[in-house]
């Protein structure tokens, strides 16, 4: 049977790039939650003897599941399991006394310039998400998982958005002043003067020339078939090394890309793997067989997700935001986690254990279960399935020494977040917009406190009213207008600092206020009016360094060997860190347990090696190939469910009607 199963899987792999399957993606409309238990699947043996490493699906969903970690990934995983399986017993273990993880908001009482009282919301961690719709080639569709979650929680009306037409200025501090990155708000002359005069863009034109030649060479020397994942891993480089090779020099890497890496990961551009960043999705077309202009490559899991949600209401929400560049909730993304917590608390099959730090996790061979002990629960409790959303090194530490050596090597950055609110509005102007980042190339004397970046929260939440000059539209939950900033410091700069050398609260606040005053030109008197709050986020952003895939491939095998497929992992330690990837990882692992990964093509279902995430959640790292589908670009709007052009026209008409009513 095993040999037959492997032959079927190999045949499925060949079918995945066929035009027949590609056309079925546009024409078929599978049942929304149909469950595939294919006879060609390699199933767990009844005696649990050999685990061969292929993705397996349990013959039935587990009756009891433990979710380790009460952050966004853990809450979303528990939500979907409880949504689909009302009888499943689900227990969430959270070490702290609150749920939500690094997504955290605080309401603070303040006074305005004239003494008026009000309140503002300080946000830590992520505060917005960017939709991943694309006018060109199709790359990632994690945003569909976000829209699905928002729809099911009934939060569509609370979702705030910034339209594509709204230009949010982005800046980089180099070497001693803010430089605006070219955007639509600048004239061609202003763009040219910025690129020519600013030291930030030194080497831009020779770098672009070298980049263009490299890309052309890639396009004309593409292999006849997609390279294997192992081939990719052998040639893996850091972001810095990869783009230095592409540009022929390191100027833009040190001045621009390192700042971007600070904003996303708080990480070192010379250590982060380029394959684990958004850049890889943009560049991967040159590493696959050339296609006619009407076609593009799409990752098989993304194509399957598009097909799976086709009949869901989240499709309509995705259509409504085809012209949206960013999403958030009025008081922060905690509104999303709070809604998840409220839902889970009402479910009779969900138990939430706060203050329960997991101290050990072992495999009970006789019962074929996983035993969990916590700081408040010394007697082990066993579960049929455990899903860990903990930081990978923490997971390795609670297992027996040497059980998960690949995860023991995991690293993460620590970020100190300092929130500042000044009663005087617009203090950061004329530098309006999203905020600024500081690259690694800035001299130490200009960044001696290791600031990563500063966000202009008030510019995003208070926008000028186009119909009433001098007035502002409040898109947040603050009741009083001022200048609200978020300062991020630390990151990879603190990697080797012992805990006692990391700045304490008062020191960090002083550092942040002094840095902002110097960068934006605040006076000492203005600085003294700041209302401040801070939080140390220890190991909050896992770092996916060069060699990440090989480590995750090994971790997949280690989890199978130690727990026989009873433990799965999800979250930023494994997938790309961020809100959207976390929600997508939660959906994937919940669907794996449900058994609803499938293709529907004509009269048969096709299962491939890389659609599922497997019993460990890491199968896509271990799969021998990165499975791709050839997609007709003219049909990509059908994959979304609607025609983009017509949807945008309908949306503009609706906006015009609302404006006339106002």
From TrEMBL:
SUPFAM superfamilies: FAD-linked reductases, C-terminal domain, FAD/NAD(P)-binding domain
Gene3D superfamilies given in the database record: FAD/NAD(P)-binding domain
Cofactor binding, note field: Binds 1 FAD per subunit.
InterPro entries per record: Amino_oxidase, FAD/NAD-bd_sf, Protoporphyrinogen_oxidase, Zeta_carotene_desat/Oxidored
Keyword check for Lipid metabolism: no
Keywords for the protein's UniProt record, in alphabetical order: FAD, Flavoprotein, Heme biosynthesis, Oxidoreductase, Porphyrin biosynthesis
Pathway: Porphyrin-containing compound metabolism; protoporphyrin-IX biosynthesis; protoporphyrin-IX from protoporphyrinogen-IX: step 1/1
EC nos: 1.3.3.4
Keyword Oxidoreductase attributed: yes
Chief place where the protein resides: mitochondrion
Required cofactor names: FAD
Subcellular location: Mitochondrion inner membrane
Primary enzyme class: oxidoreductase
Top-level division of the source organism's lineage: Eukaryota
Ranges of residues in domain Amine oxidase: 72-573
Catalytic activity: protoporphyrinogen IX + 3 O2 = protoporphyrin IX + 3 H2O2
Pfam families: Amino_oxidase (PF01593)
Family: Belongs to the protoporphyrinogen/coproporphyrinogen oxidase family. Protoporphyrinogen oxidase subfamily.
Function description: Catalyzes the 6-electron oxidation of protoporphyrinogen-IX to form protoporphyrin-IX.
PANTHER family hit by this protein: PROTOPORPHYRINOGEN OXIDASE
Listed name of the protein: Protoporphyrinogen oxidase
Source organism (scientific name): Podospora pseudopauciseta
Gene transcribed to yield this protein: HEM14
């Amino acid at each position: 049977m095993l040999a037959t199963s492997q032959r079927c899987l190999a045949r499925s792999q060949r079918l995945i790039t066929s035009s027949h399957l590609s056309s079925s993606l546009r024409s078929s409309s599978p049942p929304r939650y149909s469950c595939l238990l294919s006879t060609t699947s390699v199933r767990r043996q009844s005696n649990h003897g050999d685990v061969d490493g292929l993705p397996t699906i349990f013959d039935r969903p587990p009756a009891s599941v433990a979710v380790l970690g009460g952050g966004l990934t853990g809450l979303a995983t528990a939500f979907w399991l409880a949504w689909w399986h009302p009888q499943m017993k689900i227990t969430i273990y959270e070490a702290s006394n609150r749920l939500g993880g690094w997504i955290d908001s605080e309401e603070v009482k303040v006074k305005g310039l004239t003494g008026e009282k009000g309140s503002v919301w300080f946000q830590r961690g992520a505060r917005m998400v960017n939709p991943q719709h694309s006018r060109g080639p199709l790359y990632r569709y994690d945003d569909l998982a976000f829209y699905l979650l928002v729809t099911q929680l009934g939060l569509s009306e609370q979702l705030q958005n910034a339209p594509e037409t709204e230009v949010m200025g982005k800046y980089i501090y180099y070497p001693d002043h803010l430089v605006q990155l070219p955007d639509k708000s600048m004239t061609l002359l202003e763009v040219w003067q910025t690129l020519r005069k600013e030291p930030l863009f030194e080497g831009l034109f020779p770098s672009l020339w070298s980049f263009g030649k490299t890309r052309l060479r890639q396009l004309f020397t593409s292999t006849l078939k997609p390279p294997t994942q192992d081939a990719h891993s052998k040639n893996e480089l850091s972001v810095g090394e990869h783009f230095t090779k592409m540009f022929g020099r390191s100027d833009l890497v040190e001045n621009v890309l390192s700042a971007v890496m600070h904003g996303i990961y708080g990480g070192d551009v010379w250590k982060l793997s380029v394959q684990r960043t958004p850049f890889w999705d943009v560049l991967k077309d040159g590493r696959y067989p050339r296609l006619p202009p009407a076609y593009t490559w799409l990752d098989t899991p993304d194509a399957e997700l598009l097909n799976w949600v086709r009949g869901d209401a989240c499709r309509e929400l995705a259509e409504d935001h085809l012209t949206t560049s960013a999403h958030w909730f009025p008081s922060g993304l905690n509104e999303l986690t709070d809604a998840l917590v409220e839902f889970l608390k009402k479910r009779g099959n969900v138990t939430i254990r706060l203050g329960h730090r997991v101290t050990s996790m072992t495999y009970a061979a006789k019962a074929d279960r996983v035993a969990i002990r916590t700081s408040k629960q010394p007697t082990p409790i066993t579960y049929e399935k455990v899903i860990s959303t903990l930081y990978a090194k923490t997971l390795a530490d609670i297992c027996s020494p040497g059980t998960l050596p690949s995860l023991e090597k995991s690293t993460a950055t620590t970020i100190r977040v300092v929130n500042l609110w000044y009663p005087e509005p617009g203090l950061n102007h004329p530098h309006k917009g999203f905020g600024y980042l500081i690259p690694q190339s800035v001299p130490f004397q200009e960044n001696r406190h290791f600031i990563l970046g500063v966000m202009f929260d008030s510019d995003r939440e208070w926008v000028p009213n186009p119909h009433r000059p001098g007035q502002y539209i409040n898109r947040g939950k603050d009741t009083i207008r001022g200048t609200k900033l978020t300062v991020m410091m630390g990151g990879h700069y603190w990697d080797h600092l012992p805990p006692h050398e990391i700045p304490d609260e008062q020191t960090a606040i002083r550092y942040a206020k002094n840095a902002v005053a110097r960068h934006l030109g605040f006076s000492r008197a203005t600085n003294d009016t700041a209302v401040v709050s801070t939080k140390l986020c220890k190991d909050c952003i896992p770092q996916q360094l060069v060699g990440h895939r090989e480590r995750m491939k090994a971790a997949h095998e280690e989890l199978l060997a130690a727990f026989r497929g009873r433990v799965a992992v999800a979250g930023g330690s494994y997938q790309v860190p961020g809100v959207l990837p976390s929600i997508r990882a939660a959906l994937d692992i919940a669907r794996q347990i449900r058994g609803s990964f499938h293709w529907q093509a004509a009269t048969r279902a096709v299962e491939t090696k890389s659609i599922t995430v497997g019993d460990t959640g890491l199968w896509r790292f271990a799969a021998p190939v990165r499975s791709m589908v050839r997609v007709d670009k003219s049909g990509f709007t059908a994959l979304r469910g609607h025609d983009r052009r017509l949807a945008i026209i309908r949306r503009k008409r609706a906006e015009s009607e609302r404006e006339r009513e106002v």
